[in-house]
User: What shape does this take?
Amino acid sequence: MHLHFFENATETILLVFIIIVFLQSGIDKVTDWGGNLSWLKGHFSKSPFKNSVPLLLGIITVMELAAGLLSLVGSVHLLLHDNGGFAFYGALLACISLLMLLLGQRVAKDYEGAKTIVIYLVPAAFLLFLLQ
Assistant: This one.
């Protein structure tokens, strides 16, 4: 069996980045649901999202976990089979999740937080580009 690490080193490194970011974030939301919900209710208290925080938190949690898991499966599939299909969908969900988070930060008028999201969006979008 031949591992395709060197042929896909950049993609693999970026996938590991996505796995770390999204699985950690998703798992944190699951294990500390109450703390995250409480903080987000305060964060969005003066925004149009104020009455939808639990639903939106659930959606972003599922999206983050799916992005992380698809990226994990995708990285293994890329290394073993030189096929980036699962990885592409993991990167796509990561980008969509980050755009959702960016929208939330902008609506909450947390412009510094929105800037931080862009730091994560750039490598995720680059990975998406590489996997097309």
About this structure: The helical segments are 9-31, 33-43, 53-81, 85-107, 111-131.
